[in-house]
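Per-residue structure
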Amino acid sequence: MRRARACYGRSSMNSDLGSSAALAEELQASRTRIVEAADEARRRIERDLHDGAQQRLVTASMLLKVAMRGAADDSRLREDLERVAAELDAGLGELRELARGIHPAVLTAKGLSAAIDALAARSSVPVRVVGSLPARPAAAVELALYFTVAEALTNVAKYAAATEVVVTIEGDDQQAQVEVRDDGRGGADPTAGSGLRGLVDRLGALRGHLHVESPEGGGTVLRAVVPRDPHDPRADTNCGCCAVGQCRCAA
């Protein structure tokens, strides 16, 4: 009787472990699908803004400039039209920035390296971009890495007092990685604000993680590692930092 009971216990435990593993895998897959659905919604909004409201504003700006040429003899009317044109151009610029923040068109069209080059060109701190990916990963992975660099550069400009940033892009047939390294004041903490915390959640939903090394006065190194295919349950994003307790993926 005891033997039968022991055998049943092991079978039940194995069954429970199997069920728990399957449940954990389904939960992970669900998180990945949610991120991908949100990213597709972002792409749709960006397309709608570009093809709809943005094109209408461009057309309105062109018509206004024609009207301004026709009002050359009326200085007061021309001044009024110039003010309207300035406001329209400012609104168009803000709309373009909004569309770029929702989902950058250059990322879809040209890939991660080109999109990060565009971020670097707009940065108020000098940025050097090195490396590339051997091939384009899943769209959600590209977007997660892009947002990682965008958030890091924003934080550098706001808080780091850095003089230089180096962005490194690298990967292989299993995973993709970006590293953002600055020479600023350090002290970055993923738990202190919503930006890095959001990156931790986004990367985790894609089976990736975020590594942050930021000693006070020693600059900041932020590294995101993500599987090229987040739907592969065998995906491994080991970057070597977890074994020595440096990984902040669960921060």
Confidence is low (pLDDT under 50) at residues 1-14. The CA atoms of residues 49 and 55 lie 8 Å apart. The chain is about 60% helix and 15% strand.
